[in-house]
Automatic annotation (TrEMBL):
Pathway: Energy metabolism; oxidative phosphorylation. Residues 1-27 are annotated as: Disordered. Its main location: mitochondrion. Coiled coil: none annotated. Component of the cytochrome c oxidase, the last enzyme in the mitochondrial electron transport chain which drives oxidative phosphorylation. Belongs to the cytochrome c oxidase subunit 6B family. It comes from the Eukaryota. Pfam families: COX6B (PF02297). This is Cytochrome c oxidase subunit. Transmembrane segments: none annotated. The lineage of its organism: Eukaryota, Metazoa, Chordata, Craniata, Vertebrata. PANTHER family: CYTOCHROME C OXIDASE SUBUNIT 6B (PTHR11387).
Amino acid sequence: MWDIDSQKPPKGRWSTPPFDPRFPNQNQTRNCYQNFLDYHRCVKNMNRRGKSTQPCEYYFRVFHSLCPMSWVQRWTEQIKAGTFAGKI
C-alpha cells in the first residue's frame, strides 16, 4: 500500500479530474492534498472492512493527476515514519 511502485499510475488513458466545487480557484494545492488524504482514508476503511479497494481508485487518479510526485513521495515517507501531519 505504501510502496512507491504501487503508487505509479496504471497504464491507459486518463481523463482530467472533473471540476470540484470545493476548490474553485486556479491553485489546486488543497485539492491535491485532500484527495491524497481521501485515498488513504478510503484504503484504510476498505481494508478494515475486508472489502475491495477499487472504489478508492478515483482518489488515487485525482491526486496523481494534481500533485507533484515529490510531494507524494515525501508524504508517503512521512506516513511510513509516523510523522505525517494529516489525519488518516
